[in-house]
């Protein structure tokens, strides 16, 4: 059996292009993309998933048939300009899909920051290990809770499965516009602020009432040092509100996770 170099390159391309989408996805997937996770681990994980997934892709069967039968079929390889464009395209698709998980986490970080700024808890800040920036401690607390819940419900496995299934619903080289995919991502990203405000709405309204009460006290008794009295009471009220609202944290997370999964399905034309 004669095997030409073009046929071998075609089979190699059938692995490189899925690897580009998976590596781009894992590069920005929440928790896995943290700075505490070695890039070498993400690379090996993407390579392992690629080796497992590629034989199930319909395009791989075509390349295998061409290799074994010796059919002279024109194919795109990574040594051509079109091949490099496909690699970049698949990487951007993977980044867009993985960025959905980051937006999911940022919803609760923003909600925690809103509560922290309203209650005075924003003075306490921690370094976010994922981004390397200083964020309010309450936002970091919400981020840790969301990350643990995301891992406990196998959210990372669910998103990896959606990316694997996208090779069937959104095959490599499809005519579907990537700009439409990014438009859906940006359109959904603006709703994370609405979801964050909805999560912090009860605390915001309660703290507003507390501040109005201090304003009435200042007018009734101007000799009271409102900063010495009001600031610690606002902190205590903020902590009590955060503790009382933790029961509603889980429903918010599940609703936002369902929206994120629905967005990923719409981006790759999957029926969820």
Outline the structure in words.
This protein has 272 residues and is an all-alpha fold. It is elongated and about 90 Å long. A two-stranded antiparallel ribbon has the order 1-2. Helix content is 74%, strand content 2%. The relative contact order is 0.13. The protein has one domain (5-267). The two termini are 44 Å apart. The model is unreliable at 62-74 (pLDDT under 50). Helix 4 runs antiparallel to helix 10 and helix 6 (155-169) packs parallel to helix 10 (249-267). The chain has helices spanning 5-28, 39-53, 58-69, 81-119, 137-152, 155-169, 178-189, 191-220, 226-244, 249-267, and strands at 125-127, 134-136. It is built from 10 helices and 2 strands.
Task: Write the topology of this structure.
Layout: H1 5-28, H2 39-53, H3 58-69, H4 81-119, E1 125-127, E2 134-136, H5 137-152, H6 155-169, H7 178-189, H8 191-220, H9 226-244, H10 249-267
Antiparallel strand pairs: 1-2
Helix pairs in contact: 1-2, 1-3, 1-4, 1-6, 4-5, 4-7, 4-8, 4-9, 4-10, 6-10, 8-9
């Amino acid at each position: 059996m004669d095997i030409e170099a073009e046929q071998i390159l075609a089979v190699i391309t059938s692995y490189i292009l899925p690897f580009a989408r998976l590596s781009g996805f894992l590069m920005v997937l929440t928790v896995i993309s943290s700075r505490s996770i070695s890039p070498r681990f993400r690379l090996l994980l993407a390579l392992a998933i690629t080796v497992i997934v590629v034989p199930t892709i319909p395009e791989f069967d075509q390349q295998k048939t061409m290799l074994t039968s010796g059919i002279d079929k024109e194919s795109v390889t990574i040594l051509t300009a079109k091949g490099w464009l496909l690699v970049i395209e698949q990487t951007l698709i993977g980044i867009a899909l993985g960025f959905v998980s980051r937006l999911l986490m940022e919803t609760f970080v923003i909600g925690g920051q809103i509560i922290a700024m309203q209650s005075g808890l924003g003075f306490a800040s921690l370094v976010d290990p994922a981004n390397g920036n200083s964020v309010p401690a309450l936002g970091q607390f919400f981020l840790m809770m969301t990350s643990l819940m995301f891992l406990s419900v196998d959210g990372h496995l669910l998103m990896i499965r959606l990316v694997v299934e996208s090779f069937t619903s959104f095959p490599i080289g499809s005519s579907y516009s990537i700009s439409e995919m990014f438009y859906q991502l940006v359109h959904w990203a603006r709703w994370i602020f609405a979801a964050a405000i909805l999560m912090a709405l009860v605390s915001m309204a309660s703290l507003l009432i507390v501040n109005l009460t201090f304003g009435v006290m200042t007018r009734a008794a101007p000799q009271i040092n409102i900063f010495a009295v009001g600031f610690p009471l606002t902190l205590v009220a903020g902590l009590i509100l955060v503790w009382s609202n933790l029961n509603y944290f889980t429903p918010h997370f599940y609703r936002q996770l369902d929206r994120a999964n629905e967005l990923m399905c719409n981006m790759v034309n999957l029926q969820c």
